[in-house]
Amino acid sequence: MNEQTIEKLLKAVKNDDISIANALKKMKSLPFEDIDFAKIDHHRQIRLGYPEVIYGERKTPDQIAQIAQKLLDKKSNILITRANEQAYGAVKTIAPEAKYNVIGRTITIEREHIVPPKSYIAIIAAGTSDLYAVEEAYETAKILGNHVKKVVDVGVAGIHRLFAHLDIIQNARVVIVIAGMEGALASVVGGLVDKPVIAVPTSVGYGASFGGMAALLSMLNSCASGVSVVNIDNGFGAAYSASIINHL
Amino acid sequence: MNEQTIEKLLKAVKNDDISIANALKKMKSLPFEDIDFAKIDHHRQIRLGYPEVIYGERKTPDQIAQIAQKLLDKKSNILITRANEQAYGAVKTIAPEAKYNVIGRTITIEREHIVPPKSYIAIIAAGTSDLYAVEEAYETAKILGNHVKKVVDVGVAGIHRLFAHLDIIQNARVVIVIAGMEGALASVVGGLVDKPVIAVPTSVGYGASFGGMAALLSMLNSCASGVSVVNIDNGFGAAYSASIINHL
Amino acid sequence: MNEQTIEKLLKAVKNDDISIANALKKMKSLPFEDIDFAKIDHHRQIRLGYPEVIYGERKTPDQIAQIAQKLLDKKSNILITRANEQAYGAVKTIAPEAKYNVIGRTITIEREHIVPPKSYIAIIAAGTSDLYAVEEAYETAKILGNHVKKVVDVGVAGIHRLFAHLDIIQNARVVIVIAGMEGALASVVGGLVDKPVIAVPTSVGYGASFGGMAALLSMLNSCASGVSVVNIDNGFGAAYSASIINHL
Amino acid sequence: MNEQTIEKLLKAVKNDDISIANALKKMKSLPFEDIDFAKIDHHRQIRLGYPEVIYGERKTPDQIAQIAQKLLDKKSNILITRANEQAYGAVKTIAPEAKYNVIGRTITIEREHIVPPKSYIAIIAAGTSDLYAVEEAYETAKILGNHVKKVVDVGVAGIHRLFAHLDIIQNARVVIVIAGMEGALASVVGGLVDKPVIAVPTSVGYGASFGGMAALLSMLNSCASGVSVVNIDNGFGAAYSASIINHL
Amino acid sequence: MNEQTIEKLLKAVKNDDISIANALKKMKSLPFEDIDFAKIDHHRQIRLGYPEVIYGERKTPDQIAQIAQKLLDKKSNILITRANEQAYGAVKTIAPEAKYNVIGRTITIEREHIVPPKSYIAIIAAGTSDLYAVEEAYETAKILGNHVKKVVDVGVAGIHRLFAHLDIIQNARVVIVIAGMEGALASVVGGLVDKPVIAVPTSVGYGASFGGMAALLSMLNSCASGVSVVNIDNGFGAAYSASIINHL
Amino acid sequence: MNEQTIEKLLKAVKNDDISIANALKKMKSLPFEDIDFAKIDHHRQIRLGYPEVIYGERKTPDQIAQIAQKLLDKKSNILITRANEQAYGAVKTIAPEAKYNVIGRTITIEREHIVPPKSYIAIIAAGTSDLYAVEEAYETAKILGNHVKKVVDVGVAGIHRLFAHLDIIQNARVVIVIAGMEGALASVVGGLVDKPVIAVPTSVGYGASFGGMAALLSMLNSCASGVSVVNIDNGFGAAYSASIINHL
Amino acid sequence: MNEQTIEKLLKAVKNDDISIANALKKMKSLPFEDIDFAKIDHHRQIRLGYPEVIYGERKTPDQIAQIAQKLLDKKSNILITRANEQAYGAVKTIAPEAKYNVIGRTITIEREHIVPPKSYIAIIAAGTSDLYAVEEAYETAKILGNHVKKVVDVGVAGIHRLFAHLDIIQNARVVIVIAGMEGALASVVGGLVDKPVIAVPTSVGYGASFGGMAALLSMLNSCASGVSVVNIDNGFGAAYSASIINHL
Amino acid sequence: MNEQTIEKLLKAVKNDDISIANALKKMKSLPFEDIDFAKIDHHRQIRLGYPEVIYGERKTPDQIAQIAQKLLDKKSNILITRANEQAYGAVKTIAPEAKYNVIGRTITIEREHIVPPKSYIAIIAAGTSDLYAVEEAYETAKILGNHVKKVVDVGVAGIHRLFAHLDIIQNARVVIVIAGMEGALASVVGGLVDKPVIAVPTSVGYGASFGGMAALLSMLNSCASGVSVVNIDNGFGAAYSASIINHL
User: Which residue ranges does the record assign to the PurE domain (chains A, B, C, D, E, F, G, H) (predicted)?
Assistant: First the structure.
């Protein structure tokens, strides 16, 4: 907001073009009125350069299909996470080219292909039981326009397995590390690369894993620098961040 | 010591400017030393391209100074975090050019200037009480070779203050968001930029903030995509990750 | 039954329109009944000026219908929360005008219309997945005699959506803010209005949301003054408090 | 500075008692200043109708005094919470009329008296050990322009003590209930009044009170409708909300 | 153990009646050998004067019936807690007089009637949703030989309901208080009686009740003296303790 | 409340002895007016038959002495818990016969000797580090008029030590078990006696004892029936309950 | 890594046999290149001398059978934990000699008999409801080649039952203690033997057992030395450790 | 005192070198003494074959010295953990040969040398800040009669440091792994050895390490088999278990 706005208002008061009560009311909302909404109210896709994402949990297949339809009308690419097969059935009726990843529980509709940068995102996972998060991350990274390489079942209990893939890990532009139980993989990988590492704790485990809490705390306390963390099982979020970095 | 140093050495070998025996002697004294003698990880600097970091907590001034001395012998830049004034006193006797940031509790010794990339890191903080984490992040980012812009006291309770700095935030290459209490700033900023956001929960608050737990959980559950999180009060870790991204 | 009913009764006594014996009989059957016979708190309606509320969780349809029948005999308005469709079936047989809100899981029976004050309650929610709490709050506020305006899907990740509704929010007499995940909306709204804000954390989220804990802690630590909080998913409680304030 | 000041200014403009240029100059120095220069939120006072609040924790006496000085220049009333005696000493040098509440740890400077509404706020506390929160709430309510009545040491273990003050409680416009340990007082009071109840859990207790957690959870789960809750020990927040309600 | 045992052993050594190796072995287990097993190894029923209790959770109907059969052979009275209807079916085939309490989920078989003391146990519960714990406590107290009086639905939100039953509460020899949500009833009752109060937190509630945690912490922090607490939903344990006290 | 009260009120309305407005107001407070306050508002000492207790934590020596003075004026016996030596100094000036237990941090003033029942309370503690809770319980039990026997340092890691005192434990009328760390002693003792057992978890321990949480949970989950639990370190509460039982 | 490797590299640079860029890249991975992978990359069975283990949770019968088939091709013994009957059905088709333990939910295939040492492992459990963990431990210990003795239902509430089996416990080479609820058995057994004790907390219990948390904390805080702990319900892990010790 | 002492005594009895009365008197003064007089568990040493341990926390120097004196009278070796320098001062006056480990905070008095087995215990620690636990474990293992090898500062963030010591780790008979922060070292080491691994989480860390909770949970959820865990910072307990195993 600049002086002109207030000056105009004061003149209007002086000239009886506006009542004092109304002028007062206008001033109360001033600090927001002067926000350049052009700066912030663009459609998310334009602003962030990305497809539209629908979080499928707690939504009926019908609701998901309806939201998808609206977005398709705008020619958006679409990513639906946490989607079950019923949702896929409903979406396929309006977008036959929709693809479903059973393990990752994602539906993707690609209307406009994004040319990925040459560099790739590496997704490293401790065990096969973490695959659901791996696939969610994978599909997210793909629809956002990225090359992706996956390395699964390289948990630290057999650390030679990890070293066998050092090349893939060290040559990535950004690395996603996915692990449940004690989540130690994030620290080990973090110590091996000079690239950003995004860690995804999973809810794989039982007892004192407390639904992924153990892995989460472990990753937050990583002794390796350069590791940041997303929510438990949040493969989508990790890939989203990784994609932003890969497109920088 | 960084890649350039080794590269230069290799070139000297190639050009016969140095004998293989002498080159070997020079190299032996650094990254490999840790295998034969101590375990100070000189090699980390080469592998990860960064100066050496000393975590000052629970270390006496003497211990800190001794470790610093060894690293200085290798011509490393040095960052000491969580350092008190006594530690600074001890370090200054061996490195008079060492600088102390009282608020951030960091000591930095810059022996070799790293030319920063043109892009900058933005550090956004909710309140003046978060300054200790801001300064730790700032000093870390600087010693790692980055331009940094700070915006402090823009908590969401007066959101127009944040909007007044939209330009700085949106033009950064990577954004660090620092907030205590409910940590809502991370989500709001995350929704405004298309750059990687690294969130630092702080222990600022009382009662049900549980030492930063409230802000930490808040940030992990951010409804804005592209936000990853580091440990409570870990300004260093956020800046380390941000610097890696800024140097990509 | 409310104050008016008793007042009318007292006037009838005064005017000899009813014998003291009959008036006594009428009165005995309500607020005092709970002391002599059952413990259904009819008196609450008089004391607090509100309809009777039945918490439907862990109650069979039959139990709910029986309690409702007793209250209907006293001509009370009735609100049943956390009710499933079976409960609605049972209630409809005794009160065909009963209405069921599928999303909010409420049954309402309005026997006596309460004239609402002119001011209104605003219910602001972060996402469509919070609708179950929104509808519970909405039905509660309506049956308690209030005008209500709802604004849904204005989470802070796209904050321009919120600003588009500033008028509705700032002109309300009291504002209910409903959000899951990190619950940041409460702080942002709290900073925009000079009216009481009642925050409802929801269990929407996963992983480190810990069933709504993240949003709850976030709201309790709100950096915005004037925000008070109710239990997770407690749309009813928020609307109840809001209604009291709106009727002041 | 409050609405009246601006209203007066607008009237002066209208009546040609002040030139537009001068009015503009006067206005520029307050709410808008925060956008151009500092970030002290002068506008908040206008927008929310309240004095400026400084959270004293983790701030040095000097810092507090400096912030207070800036606010005094704008003729704001000032409330400083969590302030120690050193802070009071520093503030008194710039505002000799400043008052210190030792128990509540508040400093108040009243430059402009706010005429309170006729209705009052009741502050009800379980024990004398909760006094620190009582006094913080009391001073907050006073500086915000309210009549306040305090009832202390009426914990539920001797419930007749509470009943002895039913009149004060039931005739208030809004009731603040402050209790530590098991926090049961909130539920009992909530069942006795038809006014909004704002509950403040305190950290009074030991062992399984976990720093106020027990009282907090207790109050959030109150079986009495119409009770909302603020952070542990947050007497300020409760009074702030109560004042908003009392001024409606 | 007394000296005689050791003396005898030493003599045996001296007389070569035992080898040194064997004597040494005997001595190693001495401190336990000398326990008067008569003191501790009586059948539980004799030692504690009570029937046998079977915890039915995680046991199949067959397993329960088999254990019951063994105990019936010894003419024990039997109490089976957390039993479903299938378990009841299986037990009835071996003990047709077995009784099932659907709400309390208990099976009782009374082979030998215990004459109860004249004093009675009062069971006070906050709401009808706590009935499952009430009935478990009731059946336990009955089979253990006690008179019991129940007062249900007297939660503190309508505290006059509680006062209407003061006589029953104050004349009991021991009082069991059962409540979920915030569990405030225990403190209020604890302040009204001069008898032992045993509090049972229940898992009734949602959100921040965290499965009964809120009520549990509340009761442990009761400001009323003379209140002790058992596990969440442990109606059995409370009645067991109460019965011991009632039989003193 | 009985019919007569209402009948009288109705007659007064009829005879114009009271306005309808006033009658209405009276009826709103009826459920409380009819409480027999004689039943609940006796002085605590009379009602419960016990001395007055002052919780010394967070109170200054002066405050404690003042409260003590008031109670002494009524000839009460006095127990002050969590008192430091300064408090004792202040109390001794007004009651020279006051006694201080350094370990238990209690001050006791006995003005009127209570003749204890013949039966005794046994206090059993796991280790010498639990002595502070033992002594608090001991002094409480003594001032409340009880014989007490103490058995200390009989933790389950050397269970023969416990058996050496079986007589004292089994002959008590009520047993208090005090233990920190894993609190296993409560279960073992609970299995050995047919008397009420009140368990006191202590904060003795480190690491995963989480300030007594481990012992608390352990005791609440005791596999031995007849064990009830009080707050962590609450020797006072256990002795208070035990005394009530011992005086039955 | 030794000097020769570097020397050779430097010579290659000098002789233009390798580019500087490639030499630099090689040096960056040096610290790992020189790892003697023979030391760490053996097949797990060879390295640890044990059969292959498949964690059956979250795996389909097909996946389990496929993995088993691959391992059988290598003639490994196989242990599948957390397996349901469907998995057993699938495994039996490829290995008819496979055995299923219904309670322990394990499938074992023994292709090569391991001769057990003479000493045995004792498995001690508090209650019959802990049997699922007992059997998992038992099957694990057997397939790993151990003699095992089981003692079940010796919880501390009836401690004489435990003493009746002192011989079995004290003569074992290593003792596994399995208990839910308060887990006190670990401390009592730990105090009775001079052998390693491995404690397994189980999720048996309800309410404040918090899924085994109470037993876990209890065991970690054991006052008996020589007790170490594994995850909740982790019978497999305890037996694995015990087997390693038994084979030393 | 150990078995040899008793054996010698028995031989003396057999050979008439001592009268039965005198032998009895000698024996009475030790393992049985605890039953009659004090409760210091002399018998433990015989039963478990180990010196006496005093937990120094919360004990005054005087108390520690007194207990030590009694034990010295029995010629026991003594280990005092969590001891400060004052305690050492007091102990040295009665046992001048006592040794103090400043970092480990242990006092040791070795009256009788235990010949260690040939195999050794390896203590592996992540960082220098874990040294306090390392030294506590070291002193414990030494006084219990063991060879010990220490490897410190081999955290997983620079995993090549760990590999440099593979020989020491893999040749130990039992391995103690000590780590704070995320505790990942336990899983990595667990995957490298076929020996029992005992993990010690330390409280080293900040923020979401929650006093060692993160490392504790991490170690309990280790994906490597054969890892068992002791309490946070419990170097003593780990070494005690390790020593038992090393002496098998």
Answer: 119-248
Instruction: State the pLDDT confidence band at A3, using cuts at 50, 70 and 90.
Output: low
What are the φ and ψ backbone dihedral angles of C135, each rounded to 5 degrees?
-70, -35
* C-alpha gyration radius of chain H: 20
How far is A102 from A58, CA to CA, in rounded Å?
18
Average pLDDT, chain B: 86
- Sign of the CA dihedral A145, A146, A152, A156? negative
Phi then psi for residue G49, to 5 deg, are: 70, 25
Facing residue for G40 by CB, picked from A128, A159, A192? A159
D184 touches chain E (CB under 8 A): yes
Map residue H178 onto helix, strand or coil.
Answer: strand
CB contact under 8 A, A212 and C209: no
pLDDT of F46 reads 42
Instruction: Name chain E's partners: 3 or more CB pairs within 8 A.
Output: C, D, F, G, H
Every domain of chain E and the residues it spans: 31-109, 120-247
What architecture is domain F120-247? 3-Layer(aba) Sandwich (3.40)
- Could you say which of E32, E213, E233 has the minimum Cβ distance to residue G206? E233
| C129: contact with A, CB 8 A cutoff | yes
H or E segment to which residue H33 belongs: helix H33-36
pLDDT digits (tens, 9 = 90+) for E98-133: 999 999 999 999 988 888 999 999 999 998 889 999
Would you say residue F2 has pLDDT above 80? no
A228 part of contact set with chain B, CB < 8 Å: yes
Which SS3 state, helix, strand or coil, does residue B123 take? Answer: strand
The CA distance from H81 to C103, in Å, is 61
Residues with Cβ within 8 Å of D169's Cβ and at least 6 positions away in sequence, in order, are D122, D124, D151, D162, D175, D189, D192, D193
Rounded to the nearest angstrom, the minimum Cα separation between A49 and chain C is 15
pLDDT at C3 over 70: no
Residues in B closer than 8 angstroms to H204, CB to CB, are 58
The answer to whether residue B36 neighbours chain A at the CB level (below 8 Å) is no
Angle at which helices H131-143 and H235-246 cross, to 10°: 40
Q: How far apart are CA A197 and CA A176, in angstroms?
A: 6
G128 at interface of A, judged by CB pairs closer than 8 A = no
> What is the pTM for the complete model shown?
0.87
> CB-hemisphere CA count at 13 Å for F119?
17
How many angstroms separate the CA of residue H220 from the nearest CA in chain A?
7
Between CA G187 and CA G183 the distance in angstroms is 8
Gyration radius from chain E CA atoms: 24
CA H190 remoteness from chain centre:
21
Please report residues of A whose CB lies closer than 8 A to that of H220: 182, 207-208, 214
- The pLDDT confidence band at residue H63, using thresholds 50, 70 and 90, is confident
Strand H120-125 to H99-101 pairing: unpaired
Label residue D48 by pLDDT band (50, 70, 90).
Answer: very low
Strands E99-101 and E106-109, sheet pairing: antiparallel
Read off the pLDDT of residues H127-186 as tens digits, 9 standing for 90 and up.
888 999 999 999 999 999 999 999 998 988 888 888 888 889 989 999 999 999 999 999
According to the model, what pLDDT value does residue F4 have? 67
| Cβ-Cβ contacts under 8 Å, B192 against chain C | 159
Residue H39 pLDDT exceeds 70: no
Rounded to an integer, what distance in angstroms lies between the CA atom of residue D138 and that of residue D134?
A: 6
D232 in contact with E, Cβ within 8 Å? no
What average pLDDT does this structure show over G94-108?
Answer: 96
CA–CA distance, D53 with E192 (Å, rounded to integer): 43
Interface contact flag, F6 C20, Cβ < 8 Å: no
Of the candidates G184, G215, G225, the beta carbon closest to that of F156 is on G184
CA distance H199 to H223: 13
